[in-house]
Automatic annotation (TrEMBL):
GO terms for biological process: mitochondrial respiratory chain complex III assembly. This is 10183_t:CDS:1. It comes from the Eukaryota. The lineage of its organism: Eukaryota, Fungi, Fungi incertae sedis, Mucoromycota, Glomeromycotina. GO terms for molecular function: ribosome binding. GO terms for cellular component: Cbp3p-Cbp6 complex.
Amino acid sequence: MSPTRKEVLSLYRSFLRIIERWPTDYLRPNRNLKHVLNLRVAEGFRQHIVVKDANDFNTLFFGANSELEALKSLVDNEFKEKYPLSDRIYQPAANPKYYSGLIAAIDKAAKQKREEDAKQPSLWERIFKFLTFNRNKIL
């Protein structure tokens, strides 16, 4: 039996809810996976809005369901909980503090990026931006 319009809309909304829960990557704000997933879902549903063949429609619907389940697994960290890593992995004998230092450095870089984004530009920066924008507009 072919899925109904209501089921397809429910699937679309489920995708949007999962994508909304996707964590923000503060280190790469210009390469946002949440945005890419949003575009892919919208484009995928828009592309296949008029599918004539029932078999193709069923294949697309059940394929989208499996993709939704995969995204849910990733967002819920199912694999991290199902396959926990031992302390030997987190603290290798050669350099036991390597991963804790790496995580601290990443957190520090993310915090600096957020602070830079929140910082107001100085008066000179605003004047320079204004002048270069107007100069480019004239040329």
